[in-house]
Design goal:
The chain has 293 residues and is of the alpha/beta class. It has helices at residues 5-8, 38-47, 65-77, 92-95, 99-102, 144-159, 164-173, 181-194, 204-209, 211-221, 229-238, 241-246, 248-251, 272-288; strands at residues 15-18, 21-28, 31-34, 55-58, 120-123, 137-141, 199-203. It binds adenosine-3'-5'-diphosphate. Residues 52-289 form the Sulfotransferase domain.
Length: 293
């Protein structure tokens, strides 16, 4: 397997620090990608050939990826009993590989070029950097304020503490992994409007407000309709934050994925000036599209 990274690189692309790490991000076609993922992102884009039945989950960071992974995996595998529930003993990220991270990992069992299908994969890459053959995508997004505050907590846990003011500045500049946020969301939103059979656009807030309806929408899109109300409730329980965060498998190294899972939690941290700034930087474009504001 060889990388076609040359196809994507220009000679001296702009770099940006992130969370105190110099040159952590590199600008590619208008998006800030983690520099260490440039080669794997290119290899995925240029070498991956999707087949019928493949499903790609997609998301910016901290918008409900883990929840979407759990729900989609449950819908596609339909475990018969709690014993057969893979989520009981596996973190959702271990069941659904994030392609740009897993492709080159020496420890993973995943081989995305393996011809056995169907496959359930995940990416944080923007739509415009995906392989052309991908034809079934479930995308999850969330309000910019809650995404930013979730991101701030997450990176403060895994990468050292940064002041909220700095995190706001970074989010508003777009120089964060897979940013800018508004462009990432807008690309998938517009494609979901143009080609609803290709992209299902899911909002974290709607999933929280009407979880049963959310699961039914995803099930229908995946071609795995759910038979009964009890089945939907069972899936929601299996995938609930309360259950997953208390499982032994998620208690230690994976605990940063599970926090509060509340809508409008951003308001508890951000000043009104910060809120205004976020609105001016990323909110206006989303509002024009009828999203989140
Ligand atoms: P908060 O930080 O606001 O609590 P991602 O999975 O994309 O990294 O997103 C993380 C956010 O989703 C966190 O939000 C986390 O608490 C929340 N989350 C994780 N698992 C969840 C679940 N099973 N149900 C609902 N929300 C969940």
């Amino acid at each position: 397997m060889s990388s076609n990274s040359a196809v994507d690189s220009n000679s001296d692309p702009p770099k940006s620090p992130f969370w105190g790490e110099p040159d952590a991000l590199t600008l590619r076609e208008g998006f800030w990608l983690p520099t260490f993922l440039l080669d794997s992102s290119s290899a995925f884009r240029h070498n991956f050939q999707a087949r019928d039945g493949d499903v790609l989950l997609a998301s910016p960071i901290k918008t409900g990826t883990t929840w979407l992974m759990a729900i989609s995996h449950s819908l596609l595998t339909k475990p018969k009993s709690s014993d057969a529930d893979a989520l009981a003993t596996n973190n959702p990220h271990s069941l659904v590989p994030t392609v740009e991270f897993e492709l080159w990992s020496p420890t993973t069992n995943v081989n995305i070029f393996d011809p056995t299908s169907p496959r359930l994969l995940h990416t944080h890459l923007p739509l415009s950097l995906l392989p052309a053959s991908v034809s079934k995508i479930v995308y999850i997004a969330r309000s910019p304020e809650d995404t930013l505050v979730s991101m701030w907590h997450y990176f403060n846990t895994v990468a050292g503490e940064v002041a909220l003011e700095k995190a706001v500045e970074c989010f508003c500049s777009g120089a964060h992994p897979f940013g800018p946020f508004d462009r990432h969301v807008a690309e998938y939103w517009q494609e979901s409007q143009r080609r609803p059979e290709k992209v299902l656009f899911v909002k974290y807030e709607e999933m929280k407000r009407e979880p049963k309806r959310g699961v039914l929408r995803i099930a229908e899109f995946l071609g795995r309709p759910v038979g009964s109300e009890e089945e939907v409730e069972e899936i929601l329980w299996r995938c609930s934050l309360e259950r997953l965060k208390n499982l032994e498998v998620n208690a230690a190294e994976h605990s940063a994925y599970f926090r509060k899972g509340e809508v409008r939690d951003g308001k508890n941290y951000l000043t009104s000036e910060m809120g205004d700034r976020i609105h001016r930087s990323v909110g206006v474009k989303l509002q024009e599209l009828g999203l989140f504001f």
